Amino acid sequence: MHLSCLPFLLILISGIFCQYDYESVPYFTEGDYGYSHSMFEPSTAVCAPECNCPVSYPSAMYCDKLKLKSLPIIPSGIKYLYLRNNMIDGIEENAFDNVTDLEWLILDHNHLENSKIKGKPFSKLKSLKKLHISYNNLTEDVGPLASTLDELQLTNNKITKISPSALEGLVNLTIIHLQNNQLKEDSISGVFKGLDSLLYLDLSHNQLTKPPLGLPANILMLYFDNNHITNIPDHYFQPFKALQFLRLSHNQLTDAGIPGNVLNITSLIELDLSYNQLKSIPTVSENLENYYLQVNQINKFPVSSFCKVVGVLAYSKIKHLRLDGNNLTRADLPQEMYNCLRMAGDISLE
Question: Which Gene3D superfamilies does the record cross-reference, listed alphabetically (predicted)?
């Protein structure tokens, strides 16, 4: 992706995440496991002795990088709990009995296994909004979860299945990260049904051979990159009326696997089909702005893939088009392309 595309993406993505009220709690993104300045402040009296509860954020407890093998005692009043980069492999059933109003639970980079999570400890967290258990040893979901949950991150585990009831009733769930697991389409088809608030779903780096069924129609961002997808069922995207970002890069898509108008999605702003086995350019909506087709086997450029008709008010809104790594040169581009792609400021062929 060219750097010129990044500001556009960041603006749109920030628009989704800005809907959350983080209450000024210091929060680190995945991969940033250093301490903020608040970690060097005096800790409150009501805090696990091995952890830190900064005076300026007394409801947050930081227990990162302490080589913990089990959860510490969590005092009442803690709402934001960080336990990243430890050696925790299990959770007792009564672990959260004292903090049923916990809102954030961050358990990334531990050794958690489903067999060592006793009972249903997460079901007791009736106010939980964010649950992060990425980079662990989970093989399945950790439900049931509270209906208050708005963000679930289970990336970089070994998850092969999600039970049909695991996400049932999570009407506030907006973001799901499931990338880098071992999921197949049959193991997740239907599990997202009823998630009417879901805007962001990342299933990249799994074992899908086709897109799963039963996804909510209101989804905004959908990522299937780095799977084994060979075909997309005809009319698959027809229910999606708000879909703006779709990634299908690094799959095994051929021309035969993409029915004529299946990607002609009027709401779509960005489509990534790079690193597949396409020989022709799939037809898209005139509303598409960013189209990534690099590293395929494309050898022709039909203007009809972008414009049904060309006129004063009829043209493609494509701004960025990547075709590098294909069998095309500038000489292969038809002259009428420039009337169709009149808004394109970046067409990459090399």
Answer: Ribonuclease Inhibitor
3-state secondary structure 189-241: CCCCCCCCCCCEEECCCCCCCCCCCCCCCCCCEEECCCCCCCCCCCCCCCCCC
CB within 8 A of 235, min separation 6: which ones?
Answer: 262
Residue 225 near residue 249, CB atoms below 8 Å: yes
Assess contact for 217 and 241: CB atoms under 8 A: yes
User: Are the C-beta atoms of residues 189 and 213 closer than 8 Å to each other?
Assistant: yes
Q: How far apart are CA 291 and CA 242, in angstroms?
A: 18
Measure Cα distances from 112 to 52, 191, 337 in Å: 22, 23, 54
Rounded CA separation 234/260 (Å) = 8
| 0.90 exceeded by pTM | no
Q: Where are the alpha helices (DSSP H) in the chain?
A: 6-17, 185-188, 337-340
**CB-based contacts of 271, cutoff 8 Å, min separation 6:** 246, 248, 263, 284, 288, 290, 291, 292
Strands 346-348 and 320-322, by their bridges, are parallel
Q: What are phi and psi of 331, to 5 degrees?
A: -70, -20
| Cα 76 from chain centre | 32
From first to last of its 350 residues, the chain has per-residue pLDDT tens of 444 444 444 444 444 444 333 333 444 444 443 344 345 567 777 899 999 999 999 999 999 999 999 999 999 999 999 999 999 999 999 999 999 999 999 999 999 999 999 999 999 999 999 999 999 999 999 989 999 999 999 999 999 999 989 999 999 999 999 999 999 999 998 899 999 999 999 999 999 999 999 999 999 999 999 999 999 999 999 999 999 999 999 999 999 999 989 999 999 999 999 999 999 999 999 999 999 999 999 999 999 999 998 877 889 999 999 999 999 998 889 988 989 999 999 899 98
Among candidate residues 347, 342, 344, the one with its CA nearest the CA of residue 329? 347
